[in-house]
């Protein structure tokens, strides 16, 4: 996707040099997990309460992160952690990247690793524990990215007693069309394995994209379009066989020089928006979001501030 104007990123999880896929080529279709990414990224990130982030670069490959949350609906408290990569060459990862954070009061912990042993192969793993007395959740991913196809293996809490795994394949059959599928394996005991399949198709131009995935469990359809160099709009529709219900959502994003506005409205009578801005001449970004459900008359309002004295935001 090409555009004459590219807005700055705000509130990215990792600095830009940790987000690179060294093998990413124009002909590679991406992965099934990112199939509806263009439409989904326009949905506002709703914040409940007050959130403050602080990032500081200790060296070119070491970053300190802290987070403080005050909320009624989300786990409140203070977290601190960091991101570390030993070897980098021209923004290409030569050694694994390790990221971790912890909440000292609840001992909620997240540890992850990302590694490209060769440019076309990605390994990723995450360990999460919500509290000291709760079980440990582990996920892993192995992905091959070739010139025209992507193969991904995802593992979720895999053991002999229970677990979940997916294998997906996506291939570019032309410059605009990509087709693929996914196999889901899920088991609750060693003798019982449930399998399900899903199929995916996408048509994409430089200024719009249509994507659809279908399985026995439901259907997901998305449409994304760039109406203007600074204005994007997307529509998503999802239907679940288990509930026999469907939800349609319309989202938009309007970019400015140092800020953006996101908004959404869905068929469940929920309407919301988010405004995020980088403050001039200060290493601070701020965001405000509001979500209102017109059916239940409930709302969610939040503020988020990100302080980055080392200038990580300026590199986005």
Overview of the molecule:
The protein is mainly beta and 316 residues long. It has a 19-stranded mixed β-barrel. Strands 4-5 form a two-stranded antiparallel sheet. Residues 1-13, 15-23 and 312-316 have low confidence and may be disordered. A hairpin with a 3-residue loop joins strand 17 (245-255) and strand 18 (259-266). It has one helix at residues 37-40, and strands at 49-59, 62-70, 77-85, 88-89, 92-93, 97-103, 108-118, 121-129, 137-145, 149-156, 163-172, 177-189, 192-204, 208-215, 218-228, 231-240, 245-255, 259-266, 270-278, 284-293, 298-307. The protein is built from one helix and 21 strands. Helix content is 1%, strand content 60%. The two termini are 18 Å apart.
List the helices and strands and how they pair.
Layout: H1 37-40, E1 49-59, E2 62-70, E3 77-85, E4 88-89, E5 92-93, E6 97-103, E7 108-118, E8 121-129, E9 137-145, E10 149-156, E11 163-172, E12 177-189, E13 192-204, E14 208-215, E15 218-228, E16 231-240, E17 245-255, E18 259-266, E19 270-278, E20 284-293, E21 298-307
Parallel strand pairs: 1-21
Antiparallel strand pairs: 1-2, 2-3, 3-6, 4-5, 6-7, 7-8, 8-9, 9-10, 10-11, 11-12, 12-13, 13-14, 14-15, 15-16, 16-17, 17-18, 18-19, 19-20, 20-21
């Amino acid at each position: 996707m090409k555009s004459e104007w590219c807005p700055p990123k705000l509130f990215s999880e990792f600095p830009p040099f940790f987000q690179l896929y060294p093998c990413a080529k124009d002909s590679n279709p991406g992965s099934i997990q990112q199939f509806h990414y263009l439409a989904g990224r326009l949905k506002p990130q709703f914040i409940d309460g007050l959130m403050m982030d602080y990032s500081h670069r200790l060296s070119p490959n070491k970053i300190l992160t802290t987070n403080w949350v005050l909320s009624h609906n989300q786990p409140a408290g203070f977290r601190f952690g960091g991101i570390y990569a030993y070897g980098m060459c021209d923004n290409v990862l030569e050694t694994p990247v390790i990221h971790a954070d912890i909440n000292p009061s609840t001992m909620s912990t997240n540890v992850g690793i990302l590694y490209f042993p060769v440019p076309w192969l990605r390994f990723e793993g995450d360990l999460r524990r919500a509290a000291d007395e709760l079980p440990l959740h582990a996920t892993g991913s192995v992905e091959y990215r070739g010139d025209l196809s992507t193969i991904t293996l995802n593992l979720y809490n895999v053991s002999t007693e229970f677990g979940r795994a997916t294998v997906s394949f996506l291939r570019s059959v032309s410059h605009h069309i990509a087709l693929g599928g996914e196999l889901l394996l899920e088991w609750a005991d060693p003798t019982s394995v449930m399998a399900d399949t899903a199929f995916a198709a996408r048509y994409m131009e430089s200024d719009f994209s249509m994507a659809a995935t279908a399985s026995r469990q439901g259907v997901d359809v998305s449409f994304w379009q760039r109406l203007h160099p600074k204005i994007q709009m997307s529509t998503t529709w999802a239907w679940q066989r288990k509930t026999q219900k469907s939800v349609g959502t319309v989202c938009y994003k309007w970019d400015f020089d140092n800020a953006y506005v996101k908004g959404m409205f869905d068929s469940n009578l929920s309407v919301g928006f988010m405004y995020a801005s980088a403050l001039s001449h200060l290493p601070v970004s701020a965001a405000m979001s509001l979500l209102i459900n017109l059916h239940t008359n409930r709302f969610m309002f939040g503020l988020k501030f990100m302080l980055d004295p080392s200038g990580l935001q300026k590199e986005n």
